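Q&A log
Question type: sequence-to-structure
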Amino acid sequence: MLEKLYPLILSLLGPFVVIYFKLIPSDIANFKDILNSTISIGSIAVGFLAAAVTLLPSLGSNKLVKVLKQMGAYTKLIKYLISAIVALFLTSLLSVLGLFLVQDSMGIINRIFLGVWIYAFIFSILSSFRVIRNFTKFLVLSSNEDD
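Response status: OK
Response body:
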């Protein structure tokens, strides 16, 4: 249960920090460069994870996929992959929007944008970490069965 929810829950810390410290994008040094980098890294990660989602079903006869299905982990892994893809894609879109939206003004829109963007950014990182953690855990478990 906690594994499903921890990206959602821990991501809330970012907006709370924005609200508590009354941050705006101009408070963050080189924020537009951070947005550009987020677009690049997010796009690469979306492509990589999308390739993984499309390849996994085609590996139905693969020993690891069979073990994942026997453990009941295959569907969970696919759901986590899709969740990470959506989160990374939305974070990239928000970053593109931020390049046009963020000004040096101190308006409420910038503060709201920063809170939403930080939430999406943290959620993307944690969702990707969850996929990597689960996939490596399943790899270790399946290799232990070979021994």
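Response note: The mean pLDDT is 89.
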